[in-house]
Every structure is written in structure tokens, then in C-alpha cells.
From TrEMBL:
Recorded superkingdom: Bacteria
UniProt xrefs under Pfam families: DUF4828 (PF16110)
Descriptive protein name: DUF4828 domain-containing protein
Protein source organism: Lentilactobacillus parabuchneri
Amino acid sequence: MRKRSIFIFMISFLFSLFHTRKAPSHQPDPADPLFFVGTWEYVDHRNRVHQIEIGPDLKLLIDGKDMSAKVSLLTRYELSYVDKFGYKLEIRGNEARPIKFYDESENYTYDLKSANATKKLE
């Protein structure tokens, strides 16, 4: 009986030595919705200036009009909406601020500038 328990112990010990433990899954950094809050401007492909405003509740206004868009994705550097027509509107950022706006209905990506910085230049 004693030999059997030593044998079982040795087998389990060897299994534990050679068993590779699963690395803990890397959790992505939590998204901060306030990162996207603010007023931004972009110039469209027709050279018109537009203003995007994102509120603390992530409500999207473009040129002062409520887009009735619903948030579909929020990650650390991307905020994606689906508008009432089913088109995707995406705001992408870098470490500092939002820098790109993608409008699926026109299939264009625009560079974003802070609206406050534009007003200071005037």
C-alpha cells in the first residue's frame, strides 16, 4: 500500500513539473469614454468644415444635429456608432486624442482637429 501511494505521488509530481500552466489572458486596457468627449472639426472632401461634438453620455452631434446614433463599440482608441440608416461612424484616436473620423456612408476618413484650437487661431 505504501509503495502504491509513493508511486501515485511521484506520478502526480512529475505531471505538475512538466505541465505548462496557461498564461493569464491579457485583459485589454479599459476604455475611458471621456477620452472622446469634446468638440472636433474636420474638412470634408468638398472642402467644407464640419463640427463633431461628443457629449459625456457619448451623444453624437454633427454640425449641431443629433445623429440618433447608437454606440456599437468602445475601446481604448476607437468609438464606433451606427446611425439610423445603419451606416458606421467611427472616431479613432492615438494616445493623446481622437485624430480620425470615418464615415461609412461616404467611405471617407477625415483628420480631426480640436475645435478649440481652431478658434484660438482666428
